[in-house]
Design brief:
The protein is mostly beta strands. The chain is built from no helices and 11 strands. Strands 2, 4, 5, 6, 9, 10 and 11 form a 7-stranded mixed sheet that branches. A 4-stranded antiparallel sheet has the order 1-3-8-7, with no helix packed on it. The model has no long low-confidence stretch (mean pLDDT 95).
Amino acid sequence: VQLQASGGGLVRAGGSLRLSCAVSGSNMRRYAMEWYRQAPGKQRDLIAKIGIFGSTNYADSVKGRFTISRNSAEKTVILQMNNLKPEDTAVYYCKINSPVPLWGQGTQVTVSS
């Protein structure tokens, strides 16, 4: 099983980015999917989760600005990030909650003020 995250980059405050996590080698329909982020010197935090039936949960810091979605046919999980702030700067990771949880390699998001 492999997870490939992409879509990070440099954006100005107030801008948007769309992160994508491609899942291969697993039936992702069976598992919840999550996005985490880790800023320099800080722990890795859960920011968004989507269940197998599409229910979603968000960290307070991103609620109302970020949207997680899943396309099981295309085996991707999307994190749409709007109204980005400098404090959103971090490496973003996707994770599949399979019996052995697996992580993608991370994609850097940098938000300039």
